[in-house]
Amino acid sequence: MDAQNVISSETRSSYDRIYEIKAFDEGKLGVKGLIDAGIQKIPSMFVRPLEDRVKDFDTCSENISVPIINFADLGEKNDRIAEISKEIIMASNEWGFFQVINHGIPNELLEKMIKRTQMFHEQDAESKKKFYTRDFHSKSVYFTSNHDLYKSKAASWKDILYINARNTDGEIDHEELPPVCKDVILEYIDRILMLGDRILMIISFGLGLEPDCLGNMAKGTKSWAIANNYYPACPQPGLTLGTAAHVDTSFITILLQDNIGGLQVLHDNKWVNIEPVTGGLIVNFGSILQMITNDIIKGACHRVIAKSVGPRISIAFFFSGVMTSEKIHGPIKELISKEKTPIYRKFSIEEVMKNLFSNSLDVVGANLDYFKIHHMGDDK
């Protein structure tokens, strides 16, 4: 079925969500396919329930945003590392986010990454359809729209080119990558892995751990994933979201976004816009890091609003740990004391990731409770 079938389903006397989702899914064209079909209003499957919209937090009108941390002159100087580690940990406690500038990745590469991501999503339909799937475990590189399409209360207004190296020890077959963006993606992966390792080293330092402690646990070069997101302009942005509110399932996530914006973080019960900074990258802390640091580092709930302008492009790089590893994680023993007893039980990365893919995105952040010791009836 094509995108027009999805539109026509709105005229049915009784809204059949599964019918509409299947038509959308079988079209293999994503949200952009709806725009190309000339829709004037969004299909019902994308409309957030009225009760969710009514109870939503307000967007902050004050001129505030997440901290901007300058990595210039970082080098190997312990005093500079100590200074930045304090800034990062303060940012984690207050925001769960920060932006990093002078991070060492050339602006030209960032701009090319955004441009090539856009080129993939805007190529001819038949070329893009070859990458479409909902079988997320059989392929390392695929195109889709909404991982939780059949589980969420409302679909999100975005398409994704996903590159997943969680199951392959960080290796991907280069020939699986789309020709239109392969060379740039490979260069970007190399540079972002180095930056991620550096950030994890600085956080380890700030927590009083061995410098390679978090890096070894995250295994950045062995397990990562990239979501190359495409958010088309939306004819009714107030009715839907680009990405539902959630906390990332990762150690850390590094995000590149274009100058359109739309990313918001929940801060003091208000949504705060994270405004684009030229040459900057956004770093946020995920639920895995929160659990192993026993809530010293905290992830933050965030979302992407839909906009009437676009397309918006963003590239999220997730450091998630090796899914196939048998290693069991839990709060790091150096961060546990009589005064600070373990909050979370032990877990494997595989268990965390299965929890992610078996739930709607907006449920995943709340599911930290699933890993808390009290959930297990364990008073130890």
TrEMBL record:
Keyword Transcription regulation annotated: no
In the record, the note on similarity to other proteins reads:
Belongs to the iron/ascorbate-dependent oxidoreductase family.
Instruction: List where this protein forms a coiled coil.
Output: none
Q: Which UniProt keywords apply?
A: Iron, Metal-binding, Oxidoreductase
Ribosomal protein keyword on record: no
Q: What is this protein called?
A: Fe2OG dioxygenase domain-containing protein
Q: Which gene encodes it?
A: LOC110725014
Gene Ontology MF, one: metal ion binding
Q: Which domain of life is it from?
A: Eukaryota
Q: Record's PANTHER family?
A: 1-AMINOCYCLOPROPANE-1-CARBOXYLATE OXIDASE HOMOLOG 1-LIKE, OXIDOREDUCTASE, 2OG-FE II OXYGENASE FAMILY PROTEIN
Q: Where is the Fe2OG dioxygenase domain?
A: 221-321
